[in-house]
Amino acid sequence: MRDVAVLGVGMHPWGKFEDKSITDLSREAVEAALRDAGIAWPEIEAVSAASSRFSGGKGWGLNGNDIVEEMGSNGVPVYNLSAGCAAGGNALNIGYTLVASGLYDRVLVFGAEKMPKGMIQTSGVEEETDPEYLRQISVGMPGPAFWGMLCTQRMDEYGTTEEQLARIAVKAHENAVHNENARFRQKFTLEDVLNSKMVSYPLRLYEICPISDGAAAVVLCSAEVARKHTTRPVWLASSTVATYRYDDGIPRGLASVVPKGRTLHSEAKLAVSKAFDDAGVGPKDVSLVELQDNTVYYELAFPEEWGLCEPGEAESLVEKGETTPVGSMPINPSGGFLSFGEATTAMGVFQICELAWQLRGEAGERQVPNAKVGLAQTLGLGGNGTAAILKR
Amino acid sequence: MTTSNQIPVAEGLFAETADGPRLLGSKCATCETPYFPKAAICHNPNCSDSKLEDAEFGPNGTLWSYTVQYYPPPPPAKYDEPFEPYALGLIDLPEGLRVLSKVTADDIEAIEVGGNVQLVIEKLHTNADGNEVVTFKFRQS
Ligand SMILES: [Zn+2]
Predict the structure, then answer these.
(1) Tag placement on chain B: N or C end, fewer CB within 10 Å?
(2) The domain spanning residue B46 has which CATH number?
């Protein structure tokens, strides 16, 4: 396998953009990434796109084809990847593989969403043979309720307080103040968060990411190409994809088996562990993490599951400010999806943009000092997990 | 008790038996992995020989965790107007099954992790024909 570099990154700001199409968002992100990479569209040899279930893509998730038509149809190969909220990470992994294998030297990876209003309905199939439909009609479980249950269990096990949960949202917004691409850039006080409406106990409105429109794009290239453009490339040291283990104790449908050990987000753990192994780094080498914070709960659960801290330690790290950009375990200096909202399939690509800016030292007021190794992670419906390590 | 105007939310998920309400699932005779709802093949990757048999689960379980949902769930979930907050939980059954279910209690604010819960079949909502659509729930006593 060849070394893979992140040559260029670009983002369309995240928020609600009534007057723009998903193709408008995609094009602006792709143009920004090409500009950042210093290459022109015709030089792109393959496109790896996250499939949107909600918009564009001719209703079939063919969002990669949409952007090729927009930028100029030239016969370039397109891969459209679907993995729920992990789709951006999957698209990155295919882009990585295409360059690492030696098949192509310059690959465009992107994800974009125009999200529907309100809470996302998971099943589109109205048949009792469809397990997701069955789960929703018999029990009725919005995403936040799933996170709420996991968080309640953590509170029972570790004594996590509602104030500690709120503190994570406060930290996210403090970071987002310094990110021009974020949707919510105002500071929130602890009181603001604790006074926001309870959605799914113990999680409040400001502790759950809203849904947003947004787009992100990345240009990956071989080491040879990278050295023609820059003396200090950012390397995509690893990119991994995993699915869950049947016995991890987290029901993806109506039931699971009771696990033998701890309950674990196994798809995320497997992807992150392999990303560490493939990159030849360990949890202690990580300068910063961009993890999928659909809810504040994940900022407590994930670090210990991946060995970044001890079980039950995350709460005190949050309280001591260790998860801020200048702390010992910076998490989501971008402001995360609590501040951006989820543009579901763009999230895995979004994270690569932030890590690249951080590793280049271009993150301004939210810069993690001396950032050398960054970890990105997504989690998607169906038990999809992805991870990536970027190195300077 | 199920009466003529009660309709199960889905067929084959639960039943009122002579011994009380039960969840209808399967169990692999080779590796003892339990499934709910019924599975066609054993999902245990280490199982040498998938042999699924029908199995009934319940009524007793322990609440592994729960949430109280303060906003209406999106379609296709249905509920009676006006919407009332409801509890959802993950219930560990002695057969080694962790089940997602609505949780009921006289006071849903008093539900506790680790509490004992019992399977019940209760109304989910009233449909357009005025019939009660029922589903499985676990009640914390
Ligand atoms: Zn088996």
Answers:
(1) N
(2) 2.40.50.840
